[in-house]
Amino acid sequence: MPKEKIDLSCEVYYTSVLDEHGNFDEEQAPEIDDETLLRMHRTMLLARRFDERLLKLQRSGQIGTFAPVKGQEAAQIAAVAALEKDDWMIPSFRETGASLWRGSPLSGILLYVAGYNEGGRIPEGQNDLPIAIPVASQIPHAVGIAYGMKYRDDGRVAMTFFGDGATSQGDFHESLNFANVFCVPAVFVCQNNQWAISLPREEQTKSKTLAQKAIAYGVPGIQVDGNDVFAVYGAAKEAVDRARADKCPTLIECVTYRMEVHTTADDPKKYREEEEVKEWEKRDPIRRLQRYLTDHDLLSEKKIEDLEGEISDEIKKAWKEAQSKMEELSDQGVMFDHVYEEAPSYLEAQRESFQKTKGGKENESA
After folding, report:
1. Is 271 noted as a catalytic residue in this protein?
2. How far apart are CA 364 and CA 53, in angstroms?
3. At 273, is the secondary structure helix, strand, or coil?
């Protein structure tokens, strides 16, 4: 049979602006004002220190399991910084950094990981969805939101985050296909942290990059240094602008590394070498940005020290707020609230009986 070559545009580019050695590519650098850079740095540092505090609280049994963000701060914060306030952010289960940038309170996150659903409430006016635990389940939600915004022609964009493991799920592939067939304003941010729990990236897919998975659906795909705020922001800003103007989706693969456990129920020492972690620590996104900021007289050791103290106080205050809220929510009788607009008499009788027995145990003082 005769063969004819099909002309396909299948190029995937990798971008890095600020590497781990301090080299800075002026030509590739996006425009970021000093105020935004300093806010990025503060939010990244806050996310890191908050992570460390959460880990101590979890290990001491004061909160439940959670997914640390350590090592992935730039991939989240520099990406979400490209959004406007009215745009939508749809996270998976590790986007603490992105959520902090968007305005989620520390006390709310603490309350949620302590087991109180009330902590998952998104602040009024913040267009984010709550975290999604099932892998890749949030990606179709993002596409649906983007489709709705296109239908209303309101000029907004939806950005969703997920890990490398999610690219092996059907939800991811269906979402990319739908997004481009119906031309929706969506930005897909894949944080390729090299491990889908205990499965290394090379055992998960034979694709040379994850960005190239976009090609099959006619979606632009780019791979960036996920520990470089400039590369991530540049790619995200371009993708957001494209989505807003042309209703065209983009897939961004941020090559980064999960420096901590997958979740606090995980022990990575069982499946990865410590040397690998140490090599990636050399590419730490926070130290990289701090070096750039100090070299450009935007930051100093004294300012970093002061900022560390400020953040420490902020986290301590948030924990006190969360503890206070936990005490308010300790009354198990709230299970009777919000079931009916007007509670029927039998429900009130059940509430009264429950309160007398203190949750099933006889009240000795009764």
Report:
1. yes
2. 39
3. coil
Q: Please state, as a whole number, how many other Cβ atoms lie within 10 Å of the Cβ of residue 61.
A: 7
Q: d(Cα 187, Cα 172) in Å, to the nearest integer?
A: 12
The reported pLDDT for the residue numbered 335 is 79
Give me the amino acid identity at 105.
Answer: P
Instruction: Decide: 166 and 132 in contact? Cβ < 8 Å.
Output: no
Closest listed residue to residue 264, CA positions, set 91, 70, 106: 70
Tokens 């006190």 locate to 320
Q: What is the pLDDT of residues 154-173, one digit of tens each?
A: 999 999 999 999 999 999 99
For this structure, is 262 an active site residue? Answer: yes
Closest CA to 96 of 53, 159, 143, 50: 50
> Quick one: which H or E segment has residue 52?
helix 34-59
8-40 pLDDT, tens digit per residue, is: 777 899 999 999 999 999 999 999 999 999 999
**Is the CB of residue 67 less than 8 Å from the CB of residue 196?**
no
In the set 262, 283, 288, 292, the catalytic residue is: 262
Q: Is 338 a catalytic residue?
A: no
Q: Which of 258, 283, 288, 292 is catalytic?
A: 258
**Does the structure show a pLDDT above 70 at 359?**
no
Dump the DSSP string for 274-328.
HHHHHHHHTT-HHHHHHHHHHHTTS--HHHHHHHHHHHHHHHHHHHHHHHHHHHH
Assigned token pair, 71: 């090592």
Q: Which of 152, 149, 141 is nearest to 175 (CA)?
A: 141
For residues 80 and 45, what is the distance between their CA atoms, to the nearest angstrom?
Answer: 16
- Exposed (0-12), middle (13-18) or buried (19+): which is 184, by Cβ within 10 Å? buried
- For residue 283, what are its two tokens? 């590419």
- Give the rounded distance of the alpha carbon of 362 from its chain centre: 45
76, burial (CB in 10 Å: exposed 0-12, middle 13-18, buried 19+): buried
